[in-house]
Amino acid sequence: MGKKRILPLVLTILLISGFFTYFIMNAKPPAASAKTEANVAIPVKQSSYCWDGFLSGECVDYAEPFMMNEIKAITVSPGEKITISYNRKPLKALEEVRVWKKGQSDSETAILLNGDIFVAPTESGTYAVSTHGTWKRGSSSQVFFIKVK
């Protein structure tokens, strides 16, 4: 086989593998991460989402944040800044998060500083913080827990 036949074959294989890699990597919603000012990672758990995968789409609803009791709350100081980020940038910058205090059924909205910094409450207690983002292939929310002491 001559070089003229091998080059188109190699380019075709690269194109097909690139296509599948892109769709496989985007088959699930982006992951969120959160860390404290002291650079301590806060475990983040996938919550409700609607996502168009490679061959199919799905919508998944999760329970209220405090029913996700397998997530460990990280202790933070009152008013400590927590940076929230996604491994893929949302179409629209994050502007706010939902915050629940343990023992209360209603949530509150907290505005993010610079689109990615959440300021922990000043009142002691355990809190669930839910982030939400929208991408070309769907929307997703994640939740993490903090204990303000």
Note down, in words, how this protein is organized.
By secondary structure, the protein is an alpha+beta fold. The chain contains one helix and eleven strands. Strands 3, 4, 5, 7, 8, 10 and 11 form a seven-stranded mixed beta sheet that branches. A hairpin with a 2-residue loop joins strand 10 (125-135) and strand 11 (138-148). The longest helix is centred in the first third of the chain and has 23 residues, at 3-25. It is elongated. The chain starts with a helix and ends with a strand. The model has no long low-confidence stretch (mean pLDDT 86).
What sequence of helices (H) and strands (E) makes up the elements? HEEEEEEEEEEE
Report the principal-axis shape: elongated
* Count of strand segments: 11
Low-confidence stretches: none
- The number of helical runs is 1
**What value does the average pLDDT take?**
86
Radius of gyration: 20 Å
- Main sheet? 7 strands, mixed
Defining traits:
149 residues, alpha+beta, 7-stranded mixed sheet, 4-stranded antiparallel sheet
What is the topological layout?
Blueprint: H1 3-25, E1 32-36, E2 41-42, E3 45-52, E4 57-60, E5 74-76, E6 81-86, E7 96-101, E8 107-111, E9 117-119, E10 125-135, E11 138-148
Parallel strand pairs: 5-11
Antiparallel strand pairs: 1-2, 1-6, 3-4, 3-11, 6-9, 7-8, 7-10, 10-11
